[in-house]
């Protein structure tokens, strides 16, 4: 990994072994950021991905490093955050990538409790510096629902509620909390979320049981470039602090949700005003801010 420059923002990306997380890590590193691309099982099943990522960093002289982080483990998250702070001195921004009953528990562990653990681990460092940026990768499934995707949608609704609430709770500490909502982009985790383990029960639903396959076929048939999501994350990081929108939709289909987001923000603003909390809508600027 190239030497960390004092003026280079330090970004921790979770879920960086594949998909959005990997693209975001590489895109940020190529923009000059110091990136810690985290993934679980760094010396096991993801070893080749980690090696490939770090080789890319060396070949292009990027400040890009793979680190071990399992979002389902408090210990792993804490150790990863401590490692980043120890090696880089700080964390400026975090990007979180983020059935049977056991399947339900696992997907909530990954998509909701995982980001929650990461937030709890990095926030003490950001509070101390009165500066920081938390970017939560959600989905339009955090605004809309699809048949057969109940658990996935539930995790994204929960993630968005947590992320937006956090935005108001830490705004006066100079910390920003944002949500990115990709639309019709096929990713491995989306596919896994639609695959029911209890196939015997699924058969009882007849034609409805075919919906997951139809949804995944529809995703696979589109030509959307997942790089658009990584580019939007870069844009958000580089926006002046205090000017970033709480939600960012990415993708042609996702843009149709903009009226819903606008209306929700209108009601949210009214609710905060009614409780005398309108000052929480604005980010308090610190001396040093990300981007």
Structural write-up:
With 291 residues, the protein is α/β, with parallel strands linked by helices. The protein has a single domain, classed as NAD(P)-binding Rossmann-like Domain (Rossmann fold, 3-Layer(aba) Sandwich), CATH 3.40.50.720. Helix content is 48%, strand content 13%. It is built from ten helices and seven strands. It has a seven-stranded parallel beta sheet, sandwiched between helices. β1, α1 and β2 form a beta-alpha-beta unit. α1 packs across α9. It is globular. The mean pLDDT is 87.
Low-confidence stretches: none
CATH architecture call: 3-Layer(aba) Sandwich
CATH class: Alpha Beta
Number of strands: 7
Main sheet: strand order: 3-2-1-4-5-6-7
What is the CATH superfamily classification?
NAD(P)-binding Rossmann-like Domain
Oligomer category: single chain
Helical residue percent? 40-55%
Count of DSSP-assigned helices:
10
Largest sheet: 7 strands, parallel
N-to-C series of helices and strands: EHEHEHEHEHEHHHHEH
- In the CATH hierarchy, the third-tier topology is known as Rossmann fold
Which percent range describes the beta-strand content? 5-15%
Categorize the overall geometry: globular
Radius of gyration from the CA trace? Answer: 19 Å
Termini separation comes to: 22 Å
């Amino acid at each position: 990994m190239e030497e960390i420059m004092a003026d280079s923002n330090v970004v921790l990306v979770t879920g960086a072994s594949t998909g959005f997380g990997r693209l975001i890590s590489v895109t940020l590193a190529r923009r000059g950021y110091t990136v810690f691309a985290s993934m679980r099982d760094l010396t096991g099943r993801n070893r080749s991905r980690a090696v490939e990522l770090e080789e890319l960093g060396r070949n292009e002289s990027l400040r890009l490093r793979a680190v071990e982080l399992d979002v389902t483990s408090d210990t792993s998250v804490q150790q990863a955050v401590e490692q980043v702070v120890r090696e880089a001195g700080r964390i400026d921004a975090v990007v979180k990538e983020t059935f049977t009953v056991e399947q339900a528990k696992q997907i909530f562990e990954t998509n909701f409790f995982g980001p929650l653990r990461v937030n709890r681990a990095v926030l003490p460092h950001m509070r101390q510096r009165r500066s920081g940026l938390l970017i939560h990768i959600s989905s339009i499934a955090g605004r809309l629902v699809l048949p057969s995707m109940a658990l996935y949608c539930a995790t994204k609704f929960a993630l968005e509620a947590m992320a937006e609430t956090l935005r108001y709770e830490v705004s006066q500490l100079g910390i920003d909390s944002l949500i990115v909502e990709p639309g019709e982009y096929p990713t491995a985790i989306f596919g896994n979320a639609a695959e029911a383990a209890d196939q015997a029960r699924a058969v009882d639903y007849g034609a409805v049981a075919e919906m997951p396959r139809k949804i995944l076929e529809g995703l696979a048939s589109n030509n959307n470039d997942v790089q658009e999501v990584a580019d939007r994350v870069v844009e958000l990081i580089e926006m002046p602090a205090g000017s970033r929108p709480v939600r960012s939709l990415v993708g042609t289909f996702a843009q149709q949700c903009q009226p819903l987001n606008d209306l929700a923000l209108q009601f949210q603003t009214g609710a905060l005003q009614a409780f005398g909390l309108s000052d929480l809508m604005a980010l308090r600027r610190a001396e040093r801010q990300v981007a």
